[in-house]
């Protein structure tokens, strides 16, 4: 577990652009069992989350189509919430960071860690914007 004060700036990178923080399994269930599209970010302290994933997610939201809800939970901090979110992301194996797009409670697009590592924020943003165009 990471201390909350350590991850606060990393949480804020997403909260500041409208992401709701899911810190319990009940939060995850409430957010993901809703109508519309939900972008879920499994946040992480790793370098690929800092250098590519969070900047790419923020950049993706500059497009004309966006999910109706934005939500995030933090690996190594919100353990129970992350575990619940990963159940919704099956059959994909556990991965953090990771990004999932849900439509009406169903996973429709997934970006795993191996799709984040070594990719630029622009590549991640483009990937997400294509998914937004199709599902949002």
Biggest sheet: strand arrangement: 1-3-2-4-5
**Main sheet specs:** 5 strands, mixed
Number of helices: 6
Main CATH class: Alpha Beta
Any overview of this molecule?
The chain has a five-stranded mixed β-sheet with strand order 1-3-2-4-5, sandwiched between helices. It has a single domain, classed as Glutaredoxin. The chain has six helices and five strands. It starts with a helix and ends with a helix. Helix 2 packs parallel to helix 4 (79-88) and helix 3 (47-60) packs across helix 6 (121-135). With 136 residues, the chain is of the alpha/beta class. It has helices spanning 4-15, 25-32, 47-60, 79-88, 113-116, 121-135; strands spanning 20-21, 37-43, 69-74, 98-103, 106-111.
Which terms summarize this structure?
136 residues; alpha/beta; Glutaredoxin; 5-stranded mixed beta sheet; 46% helix; globular
Produce the secondary structure layout.
Elements: H1 4-15, E1 20-21, H2 25-32, E2 37-43, H3 47-60, E3 69-74, H4 79-88, E4 98-103, E5 106-111, H5 113-116, H6 121-135
Parallel strand pairs: 1-3, 2-3
Antiparallel strand pairs: 2-4, 4-5
Short structural description:
This protein has about 140 residues and is α/β, with parallel strands linked by helices. Helix content is about 45%, strand content about 20%.
């Amino acid at each position: 577990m990471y201390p909350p004060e350590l991850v606060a700036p990393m949480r804020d990178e997403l909260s500041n652009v409208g992401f709701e923080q899911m810190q319990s399994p009940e939060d995850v269930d409430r957010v993901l069992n809703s109508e519309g599209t939900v972008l879920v970010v499994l946040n992480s302290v790793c370098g690929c989350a800092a250098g590519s994933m969070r900047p790419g997610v923020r950049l993706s939201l500059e497009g004309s189509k966006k999910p109706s809800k934005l939500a995030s939970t933090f690996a190594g901090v919100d353990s129970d919430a992350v575990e619940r979110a990963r159940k919704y992301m099956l059959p994909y194996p556990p991965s953090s960071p990771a990004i999932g797009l849900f439509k009406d409670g169903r996973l429709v697009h997934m970006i795993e860690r191996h799709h984040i590592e070594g990719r630029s924020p622009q590549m991640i943003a483009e990937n997400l914007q294509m998914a937004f165009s199709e599902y949002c």
